[in-house]
Amino acid sequence: MNFENYIKEKKNLIEKTMDAILPAEDADPPIIHQAMRYSVFSGGKRLRPILMLATAEIFGMDHKNVLYTACSIELIHTFSLIHDDLPCIDNDDFRRGKPTCHKVYGEDIALLAGDALLVHAYKMILKNIEIKEIKKNTILLLFEEMTKCVDTENMLGGQIKDVIHEKPDDNVVAFLCSLYKQKTAALICAAIRAGAILAGAKKREIKALTKYGECIGLAFQITDDILDIMQDQRNEDRITYPGVVGLKKAKIDSEKLIKKAKKALSIFDNRAEFLIAMADFILSRQK
Ligand code: GRG
Predict the structure, then answer these.
(1) Ligand 1: centre distance to CA 81 (Å)
(2) What integer pLDDT is reported at residue 236 of this predicted model?
(3) What's the 84 CA to ligand 1 centre distance in angstroms?
């Protein structure tokens, strides 16, 4: 199957599952469920759940055993975007070309919709109990993976550094890389690691996939900043990697990271072809 069809097929699968697992729009109280669904179904690329499915596929794991966890990671992603857009954080009016959640539903409901999505993400990890192929211990490992990724050592910590705009006097590049690893790469890496954990991958395989995830995660955020500059959407308050090292070096560095990521997959021979294609896509994407 070619890459475009692969992405399309997986995206459909994920969106169908999310539609089935989220509370209906008219479930009480309707406003929160409408807001949750508005943000979840407003046109995301679904990269993180696709990465999870593609990782589990390396080990021959059936998609149906991965879908709840894949949706869980997309719900965490959506929660982080809703909160990131709030007036008290980035104050963005638009996301994916559409009004942000708080613009449509108000700040109070948007904040709570984000909270509800995080809780629902954990419920999805628990729902794995219904799948007989998944052991209880695997579910505990998934909980650990998700929690570490959201915690102050990762997403929350990175976001806090971003919010307080505290720039170190020296080694700004190292500071930015650490912030990007926490804020962005951690969730991408957790998606990949969760796919491997679900599929019962061995330690050395998880290590290789973690390296891949860290590299593509960092390259993803650098590319995101490059796209913001090129599409004239830069936030002047934020220090960014291309803002510090320049566009040309930022592009070279993200290419190096993608090369490193692909090299980490060499232990899988040709079984990781879609992960390799995903790595290339991260560099070539325009949105
Ligand atoms: C505790 C999880 C948690 C969050 C609170 C708000 C916050 C702390 C963190 C925000 C992190 C954040 C917004 C990182 C930006 C990552 C990024 C570049 C997102 C865009 O990802 P895409 O392009 O989005 O995959 P689509 O639109 O395709 O879904």
Answers:
(1) 5
(2) 73
(3) 7
Give the H or E element holding residue 284.
Answer: helix 273-284
Full-model pTM: 0.96
Say if residue 286's pLDDT is above 90.
Answer: no
Ligand 1 near 224 CB (within 6 A): yes
- Helix-strand-coil split of the chain, %, nearest 5: 75, 0, 25
* 184 in contact with ligand 1, CB cutoff 6 A: yes
Is the distance from the beta carbon of residue 110 to the nearest atom of ligand 1 less than 6 Å?
Answer: no
CB distance 221 to ligand 1 below 6 Å: yes
At 52 the pLDDT is: 98
Compute the average pLDDT of residues 159-173: 85
Taking a C-beta distance cutoff of 8 angstroms, is the pair 21, 71 a contact? yes
**What is the rounded end-to-end Cα distance, in angstroms, of the chain?**
23
* pLDDT of 138: 98
* DSSP codes joined into one string, 49-98: HHHHHHHHHHTT--GGGTHHHHHHHHHHHHHHHHHHHSTTTT--SEETTE
- Band the pLDDT of 246: cuts 50, 70, 90: very high
Residue owning the nearest CA to atom 29 of ligand 1: 44
The verdict on the CB of residue 150 being under 6 Å from ligand 1 is yes
